[in-house]
Amino acid sequence: MKKLSYIILLAIVGVFLYSCEKDEVKVVMSSNPTASAIQGPASPAGMAFTKDDIDNSIDFEWSAADFGFQSSITYGVQIAKTDDFAGAATLFTTQELTGSAGVSDINSILLAWNLTINTEATIKCRVFAMVSPNADSAFSAVTDYTVIPFDMLVDYPMVYVPGAYQGWSPGDVNGRLYSYDFNSVYKGIIRLNGDDPAMFKITVNPNWDGPNYGGTLTAAGSGYTGALDDTGGDYAAAVGTYEFTVDVSALTIELKATNDWGIIGSATAGGWDDDTDMFYNGQRQMWEITGDFVAGEVKFRANDAWDLNYGGADGSIVAGGDNIVLDADGNYTIRLDLVKNRYSIIAN
Question: How far apart, in whole angstroms, are the C-alpha atoms of residue 201 and residue 117?
Answer without folding.
Answer: 35
